[in-house]
């Protein structure tokens, strides 16, 4: 979040984010390790679980996707996917958001639905930042969203263990689906590091391996392809191998967990968060020879959280399709406040069908 946008948000009238519809119902439970004035929301693994296995069609819902290799696939993604219910945390009278505590929802939240709901409506690329601990619970890592201005601090979402449990439950109930967990790791993002000691990335990856999601890690199935020494596996091959959780992240990510480098694709997340010329960003990103991850970041429009009106969103999606159709190089489109029926689902399906027919 940028300082100018945050100031604008402070002066604006806060409005509620649009709730998503059409997804399977799920419940969440809040927990914290100590009494604090405000605690981060965590999702109960049991409550988030899908209770009945889904008879999914094809790979990620499309027969045409099964023959595509991972690097040619397209995913619908959620930007800062774990930010629903994100909260500033106060411990010993110190608020984690600093000045941002006055408008925590509009400053740090980018999704109206929890992870289980996002997965249920078809999101398969989860963009999440993690930090080593929450001030209210220093025993484990937490998802988080921070500002690039130190005055506006950081807000916290579900614990890492809760995120892993939700993903593991979904994969267990959807045997033909593959999920990408993209660990944000830029200077502007909250980022877990080895400096977090006992809660550093070694412990983070150990917890991931030990979780229910750990049974589906695709790291070993992707290592040779990422190094250029073998072909990328197809989506069907990932399903057959049970390697259906693709983790992307830091250069230090263990090879058995995920890809140690994301140099094999280009990310449009190189521009200011509130990019004024999305059409230019899309055109530039799609011109690259690598698969591209595009992020649709909503600007502040004077009311704190911008409602995602279809007539405002479609032109941007159309630009993506027009810019990238020839190269069919869009790996993922990440969206704020994504909901059931969002036009991005149809557009990404059209991209997949175009690639499969090529």
Please mark out the parts with pLDDT under 50 across 5 or more consecutive residues, or reply none.
Answer: 1-55, 186-190, 271-276, 299-307
Mean pLDDT over all positions: 73
The helicity comes to 25-40%
How much β-strand is present in the residues?
5-15%
Q: H/E series, N to C?
A: HHEEEHHEEEHEHHHEEEHEHEH
* Silhouette: globular
| SS class | alpha/beta
Number of DSSP strand runs:
12
Indicate the multimeric state.
single chain
Descriptive labels:
358 residues; ten-stranded mixed β-sheet; 14% strand; globular; disordered N terminus
Structure overview:
Helix 4 runs parallel beside helix 5 and helix 10 packs parallel to helix 11. The chain is α/β, with parallel strands linked by helices. The strands form 2 sheets. Strands 1, 4, 5, 6, 7, 8, 9, 10, 11 and 12 form a 10-stranded mixed beta sheet that branches. Strands 2-3 form a two-stranded antiparallel sheet.
């Amino acid at each position: 979040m940028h300082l100018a946008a945050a100031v604008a948000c402070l002066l604006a009238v806060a409005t509620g984010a649009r709730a998503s519809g059409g997804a399977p119902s799920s419940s969440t439970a809040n927990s914290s390790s100590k009494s604090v004035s405000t605690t981060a929301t965590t999702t109960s693994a049991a409550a988030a679980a899908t209770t009945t296995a889904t008879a999914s069609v094809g790979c990620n819902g499309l027969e045409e996707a099964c023959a595509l290799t991972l690097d040619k696939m397209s995913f619908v993604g959620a930007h800062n996917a774990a930010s629903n219910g994100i909260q500033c945390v106060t411990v010993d009278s110190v608020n984690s958001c600093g000045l941002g505590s006055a408008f925590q929802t509009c400053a740090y939240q980018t999704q109206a639905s929890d992870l289980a709901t996002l997965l249920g409506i078809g999101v398969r690329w989860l963009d999440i930042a993690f930090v080593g601990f929450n001030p209210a619970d220093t025993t484990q890592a937490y998802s988080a969203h921070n500002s690039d201005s130190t005055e506006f601090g950081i807000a916290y979402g579900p614990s890492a263990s809760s995120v892993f449990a939700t993903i593991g439950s979904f994969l267990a109930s959807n045997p033909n689906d593959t999920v990408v967990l993209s660990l944000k790791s830029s200077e502007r993002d909250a980022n877990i590091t080895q400096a977090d000691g006992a809660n550093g990335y070694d412990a983070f990856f150990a917890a991931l391996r030990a979780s229910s999601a750990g049974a589906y890690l695709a790291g070993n199935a992707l290592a040779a392809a990422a190094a250029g020494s073998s072909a990328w596996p197809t989506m069907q091959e990932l399903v057959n191998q049970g390697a259906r959780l693709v983790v992307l992240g830091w250069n230090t990510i263990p090879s058995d967990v995920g890809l140690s480098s994301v140099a094999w694709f280009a990310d449009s997340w190189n521009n200011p968060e509130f990019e004024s010329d999305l059409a230019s960003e899309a055109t530039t990103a799609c011109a690259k020879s690598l698969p591209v991850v595009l992020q649709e970041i909503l600007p502040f429009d004077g009311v704190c959280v911008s409602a995602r009106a279809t007539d405002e969103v479609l032109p941007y999606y159309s630009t993506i399709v027009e810019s990238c159709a020839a190269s069919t190089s869009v790996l993922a489109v990440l969206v704020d406040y994504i909901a059931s029926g969002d036009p991005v689902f149809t557009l990404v399906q059209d991209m997949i069908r175009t690639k499969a027919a090529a």
